[in-house]
Automatic annotation (TrEMBL):
<dbReference type="InterPro" id="IPR011881">
    <property type="entry name" value="PaaA"/>
</dbReference>
<dbReference type="InterPro" id="IPR007814">
    <property type="entry name" value="PaaA_PaaC"/>
</dbReference>
<dbReference type="GO" id="GO:0010124">
    <property type="term" value="P:phenylacetate catabolic process"/>
</dbReference>
<dbReference type="InterPro" id="IPR009078">
    <property type="entry name" value="Ferritin-like_SF"/>
</dbReference>
<dbReference type="GO" id="GO:0097266">
    <property type="term" value="F:phenylacetyl-CoA 1,2-epoxidase activity"/>
</dbReference>
<keyword id="KW-0560">Oxidoreductase</keyword>
<protein>
    <submittedName>
        <fullName>Ring-1,2-phenylacetyl-CoA epoxidase subunit PaaA</fullName>
        <ecNumber>1.14.13.149</ecNumber>
    </submittedName>
</protein>
<dbReference type="Pfam" id="PF05138">
    <property type="entry name" value="PaaA_PaaC"/>
</dbReference>
<dbReference type="GO" id="GO:0005829">
    <property type="term" value="C:cytosol"/>
</dbReference>
<dbReference type="InterPro" id="IPR012347">
    <property type="entry name" value="Ferritin-like"/>
</dbReference>
<dbReference type="InterPro" id="IPR052703">
    <property type="entry name" value="Aromatic_CoA_ox/epox"/>
</dbReference>
Amino acid sequence: MVAVHTAEPGAPGELAERFEAVVAAEQRVEPRDWMPDAYRATLIRQIAQHAHSEIIGMQPEGNWLTRAPSLRRKAILLAKAQDEAGHGLYLYAAAETLGVDRAELTEKLISGRQKYSSIFNYPTLTFADVGVIGWLVDGAAICNQVPLCRCSYGPYARAMVRICKEESFHQRQGFELLMTLMRGTEAQQRMVQDAVDRWWWPSLMMFGPPDDDSPNTAQSMAWRIKRHTNDELRQRFVDMTLPQAQHLGVTLPDPELSWNEARGSWDFGEPDWSELQRVIKGQGPCNTQRIDRRRAAHEQGTWVREAAAAYASKRATAGKQATASKEKESDV
Ligand code: FAQ
């Protein structure tokens, strides 16, 4: 067992060696441990973006909460959106173990200084989009996030275990919704195909730019934060999704999709990377709407945060007074 000690930060060389040894031995770096500043900064960047994505990610589906076609579908959608809020909270808590404050991260999100996933800047035009988000977006999220359960940073890795279990459930509910529609009328089948056509390419872009154009991958892999490159995970997602698309009876909107016998994998076309860059820079179809909504929710929630803080401080004062009077009694 290799331990990272942090009590005496007097010998950076030795501390750095211990850090490297922990990572190489597939052990976990914990909040109390010494870590390089750049490792800490990379984790804050990725975990904060991930947390913001979960919270902003409630908006596209939230669009259908009041218009779900049955009570059952409404209850399922509500539960899914609540799960996503929970994921955001675990992730903000994981980021806070690195010395940042959730309020500060939220401020960075709504002022545009931190990112969230490009996928949530597309509109949800029909109820089939809810199913496709579950199937493709949660499916892509699972491919990307299961390896993060083995991330070198303990609090992030542990948060991902529970998140992945819930995302798998979300993916299955999306598939079940789509299967139901595909067994329905021709209009319902067309609605599914239209949603698949709109979400396929943005889902592939969730994995990030191609490896040659991904400035962070090499270092994040060396630190075992990321366990696979963006392109490796994208391929894994395509291979996982193709049989499911065949089972559903939908066509994926890529004429270059073909089975490559030699590689034992599907060949597929190149996403439009300029679109990803535009969406990341804030020029996607819904970027302004998403951030405006998030900012408004944050402002409208001010009184709740203030009330919770006032209550916590009242409880703390009452607790201190009770302890002081107990001590006085025992002195007598
Ligand atoms: N969107 O060098 P790389 C979900 C940025 S949660 C926006 O490759 P990296 C659950 C990247 O940040 C979905 N920005 O970066 C759900 C970097 O910019 P920076 C979120 C992107 O970090 C389902 C620059 O481009 N999941 O879906 C995107 O090594 C349904 C260069 O890129 C996570 O956050 C993008 N797609 O790899 C909720 C998973 N791609 O920061 C509701 C954790 C790249 O240097 C409904 N994150 N960028 O200014 C990761 O695995 C990684 O951060 C990547 C990017 C793979 C996203």
